[in-house]
Amino acid sequence: MQHLSPTGKMRDFHHHLLLFLYLFLLSLYQASIASSLSTAPKAAHHRCRDDQRSAFAQLQENLKFPLSSSKAELWDLKTDCCSWEGVTCNDVGRATRLDLISAYDEYGDSISLKKPNLGMLFQNLSFLVELNLDYVNISAQGSNWCEVISHVLPNLRVLSLSSSGISGPLCSSLSKLHFLSELHLDSNSELSSIPPSFLANSSNLETLDLSNCGLNGSFPNNIFLLPKLQHIDLSENLLLSGQFPEFSLNSSIQSLLLKNTNFSGNIPLSISNLKSLKELDLGMCKFYGVIPPSLANLTQLETLDLSFNSFNGSIPPFQRDGVANLSFLFLEHNQLNGILYSSLFTLPSLQQLDLSSNQLSGKLDEFSDASSSLLTIELSNNNLSGSIPRSIFNLPSLIELDLQNNKFSGPLKLGDFKNQRDLVYLALSDVSVESDNSSLAYVQLATLYLPSCNLTEFPNFLKTQNSLTVLDLSNNRIQGYVPSWIWKTTLTTLYLSRNPVDFPKIPPFVKVNHSTPIYNEDGVSSFPMTLENLGMSSCNITGSFPEFIKNQEKLINLDLSDNKLVGHIPKWIWNMSLKYLNLSCNKFDFLDQFSNPISLPYSDTLITLDLHANQLPGSIPKAICNCSQLSLLDMSHNHLRSQIPDCLGKVPTLTVLNLQGNNFDSISSYAIASNLLSLKISDNKVEGKLPRSLANCSKLEVLDLGGNMIRDTFPVWLEKLPALKILVLQANKFYGPIGNRGTATTWPMLHVMDLSSNEFTGNLLKEFVQSLGGMQLTSNNESRARYVGDNYNINGHYKESVTITMKGLKMHMDRIITLFTCLDLSNNSFHGEIPEEIRILKSLIVLTLSHNNFLGQIPSSLSDLRELESLDLSSNLLSGEIPPQLSRLTFLAVMNLSYNHLEGRIPQGNQFDIFPDSSYEGNPRLCGFPLKRKCNPEVNEPGTPPGDHEDSWTEYILDWKIVGIGYASGIVIGFSVGYTILSEMRIKWFTDLIRLAGNRERWFNQGQRSLQSW
Predict the structure, then answer these.
(1) Which end of the chain is more exposed for a tag (fewer CB within 10 A), N or C?
(2) Sequence ranges of the domains in the chain
(3) What is the pTM for the complete model shown?
(4) How far apart are CA 158 and CA 128, in angstroms?
(5) Using a CB cutoff of 8 Å and minimum separation of 24, what contacts does 993-996 make?
(6) Residue 501's Cα: distance from chain center in Å?
(7) How many Å apart are CA 616 and CA 638, to the nearest integer?
């Protein structure tokens, strides 16, 4: 055994003493850190340190309060800072929590930093574990703020900077905050950052809120797999994309919010692993596929919002025991189908149910054990049928019920709702409704929609509705004058369109300056009506402009379209603060000019002005150009003339300009507003060249200049317009080739191009065909009909329409479905062969190359155009046999190969069995069905000039049938064009023979008018 010397023993003692002191100091440091990480306030026994008070004093000195604030300071510096509002200290008097929003309790105002030097302000507050600067404008530019915070405040567990004026990008230094469990950066739209992938390493993160931050790019989906993550909110980042990962079994996620982002894909079946999930909000995203049935087994679920996506299939089988806590279920605006099971109405906690705008069908069964908490039911815009279940009338707490646009059978008695005393919103349509004087005597509605309910008179119970503000009785069979008591109610919105009603000659209008009650002839108390919205289109109103409207000083939206009003549009209409004014389809013949137009109220409010289809003469009043908010101006089909005013080009908000069917003779480059989405000047007398300023309209989607006298070369420079979808230049004097060999152009979105009836020449080059990018994309996954113009942000409903020409007949499409694709090069002087590259235009529905000088054989590659429904190659110099491959075009409904030099046997089978002989006339060497000419070369009849057989083609269109499609109202050639989306997600065209045959003369009218089916 070795013995130590006295010196060695002393050295050993010193080592032990140093070790003891080290461990003692380390334990003190750890205790200090542990104390700082505790959020429990313990300041009652410890005064704050001087360095902390000094730091807070410096912070307060740097705060800038709004002028409206009653505060000049947050804290009294003479008191203990650990007792201040919004401040929490640990045991040793160091601040661990700072919450300025709770210290500054004047909500609605925000405070800011005079000098946003975060490093200086927080350098002595390094023990903070929670920092809340919500609504404090720190005006931090770039990524400096997150670098400073992560350096100065390394112990942060909670960082909240909502609406704090910070900008991006987010820097990876935030990953140095190892204790961070909550990060709130929402409502800082200037972050504009790519998603923070470094957060995938934040293993302690429990809450992440990056909503409304302007994030863009693809979100790293491994962040969803963080082991402690409970709450994640990425909503309102419109450019943020991503998909879900496969969720792990041990996930802690309780709320998952992605509303109004660009996330897409299927919801994975592993969503069932989120056993703690309480809130799932995927509304207004791009998800698709079937909703996993396992969602119905998430027992903690309280809110489920999958609205405005493309989900299909059936609704998950929600049961009382499975989702006992589910309070809010929003599945509207999808493609859900199948039966709606009544068990949904029995979920014990359900308060709001919205299944509107789907494809649900079948009967609604009666249900027992209805949820007593159910407040709103939205089932509109489905295909539900049968009787409305009487169980609905027994829901005691119901506030809102919307069953519009279904196929429910009636009659329905309004008295059935008499026990639902809380009902304030009732919307029914397309069902026979019966009412009596006491129908809803004890129910006070705020909103009542009863369009298309077969009503023959104004329901009497409306007299007792003292809270009614919105009333829609449109499209019924109500006749006569509008009763006097209607004008003495609380209504702000009244829709009576498509009823044969009229205004009284002397309306019983009572104008008062306050809400003093008045009494009608029955002694019923009511209040004078001050209308904001009045819709009375198609009411057969006659005479001059209704004078009573002059007193409606709060009127915002007025629709008197499609009546029989005559005379002048009065000057006083421009003194109102209207946003929407529709006087179209009347017989107004004079537009009172405005005096001092700049100061008139309409100048700052008018958004939509629709005066089309009247008899207005003269020029467009230049005062209209003073409407600083004007978005839509439609003065088409009047008698306007002269030059289109240049000042229209200075209206910054103008997006739709429709001046079709007038007598304008010129338009300059200055008249083109750069923000236009739609410009339609067809059927005028415009001469000269195409305004080159059109190239500046980068948002332009529709350009229709057909039927003028414009003389110019093909505007290849328009290909610079990336959003252009519709280009109509037909019936002008354009000339020359439409493309150059070897020159690459591109029309990425164009799906309707009409260059017919011009003076174009040259070959149809493969380069031109290859440039039509918008016609090469098929949309087989499109299950919801979308129309050109749906994205226009315009007050009111504007329908983009177009007229196509077929065999000399103008055929009007009242709306343009985005799937409709048409190429019309007819009546020009093109020559050479039809290029084989035509096969790449996969989405073509209408192809018209008639009345040119094309020669050679019909390309067999046309058989690749599987969407094709109309093919016209007539009056060319085509030769050879008809390719038998064309029989593969099973959707082809119209084909015209007449007046060429074709020969041989006509193919048989599929659509070729329905084409009449007029499809082949003028080809004396063709034989076989449907021609009487047998395939015998000894008999060849000479061709007949095309003009002698125009009627046979007309009769062919009228006699055309497609049997067995089994769907209603699709695209109808020449008469009306709507849509039908079939299960295979495509469009089919057909004609209702019985309806059209009896109206032949009206439809065609010498083949020159635009025709509509109603």
Answers:
(1) N
(2) 541-712, 732-958
(3) 0.79
(4) 9
(5) 993/958, 993/959, 993/960, 993/961, 996/958
(6) 34
(7) 5
